[in-house]
Amino acid sequence: MAKFFNEMTAETIGTADSTREHYREFHHWLAKQSAERLQRKRAEADLSFRRVGITFAVYGDDAGTERLIPFDIIPRIIPAKEWALLETGLVQRVKALNMFIHDVYHDQNIIKAGIIPPEQIYKNAQYRPEMQGVSVASDIYAHIAGVDIVRAGQGDFYVLEDNLRVPSGVSYMLEDRKMMMRLFPELFAKNKIAPVDHYPDMLLDNLRSVAPMGIDNPTIVVMTPGMYNSAYFEHAFLAQQMGVELVEGKDLFVDDNAVYMRTTRGPKRVDVIYRRVDDDFLDPLAFRPDSSLGVPGLLSVYRAGRVTLANAIGTGVADDKSIYPYVTDMIKFYLSEQPILNNVPTYQCRKPDDLAYTLAHLPELVVKEVHGAGGYGMLVGPASSKQQIEDFRQRLLAKPEGYIAQPTLALSSCPTFVDSGIAPRHIDLRPFVLSGKTISMAPGGLTRVALEEGSLVVNSSQGGGTKDTWVLEN
């Protein structure tokens, strides 16, 4: 039977370790709470979230277009020492990723050095030749990165994936904290928990710092695909919290090599666009001509350095799962440092030996599409039927270069309040890393939890929930 690291007790199945020191205050409090009170508080949270409109659209869900992301009232707690390690490792990783993206679109030294095969770049669906040789403000491409962290084995941290295109979830991090403070104010009096409510201010400062050259007081907007997008709540939330306009492509236009916003007082020049629209839909003149979400001519203004896009066009070349196995090499190559955070061992199915191993061990592995996201298009071998495994085998044989495989990690678990009471459920963590003049992040991030017993898939689109994440200040 697999052993899982328990965040509260450090137990693995078959052992009986005591509560970890940084959880003791909370553990004592939890032991005194009745199931009825916890149930009442959970219902209160659900009602409040529904009233505010914190819902998530699930694509392809026949049961309904939107639903509430389940919120768990038992927090995930991280001690200061562990967070310091994570923070240092994340700064290192995101710095190297930004250097890699710049290199890909300029000198391509990492390709010339033979570290990454050129076809992994040029045949990558996220590579944008239109960005070759284009200078971007401060050489920063991934202004906002959401890096998924898991803990496995005896408690070691691993990076599961890097989200550098339009990473989502930070609004849930902020709303989860507000909810916990409302439901259980006594806990915040007893525990020194690092605040996260300043994230919108950090994001705004970050976006201001990467304005085009010569712009001292930039006009910033959040660009959304519209109200039917799964993360629309977050787009509106962040715009409101930063005090900037929420716009759609139809609200913007290009004139005289600049981007303008339509307002009731006439056109207003826009300097920085925090875009939550995918590359393909940004400019119908440059990418998909059928896009009604973008701004005709936007790419030409961007290439001229007269508007900043966060994140940059073409960042996806670095968060593709086929590039993931090389990130530790990037850190060594660009920074001359050893990686602080480990990758999960990865088999690249385009390689014959890796493919042979994967096919021989499908019941034990997790297999992912290199361009996949949101928990879609993947096989979790131990949780799959023989028929599902055989079906996936045929997909692998038909297009091996489209997949990677990884061992099924024994993800750490955290006590979670479910219908049957308090029980361990598997979790991950998505910290949000901001790159501007400096690299910074709010302490913690979004903890996602797989609510089904035994499930290792935490994605909201696959039925996962969220928890508040506490980083203790001492």
TrEMBL record:
Coiled coil: none annotated. It comes from Undibacterium aquatile. This is Circularly permuted type 2 ATP-grasp protein. It holds the Pfam family CP_ATPgrasp_2. Residues 75-450 form the Circularly permuted ATP-grasp type domain. It comes from the Bacteria. The lineage of its organism: Bacteria, Pseudomonadati, Pseudomonadota, Betaproteobacteria, Burkholderiales.
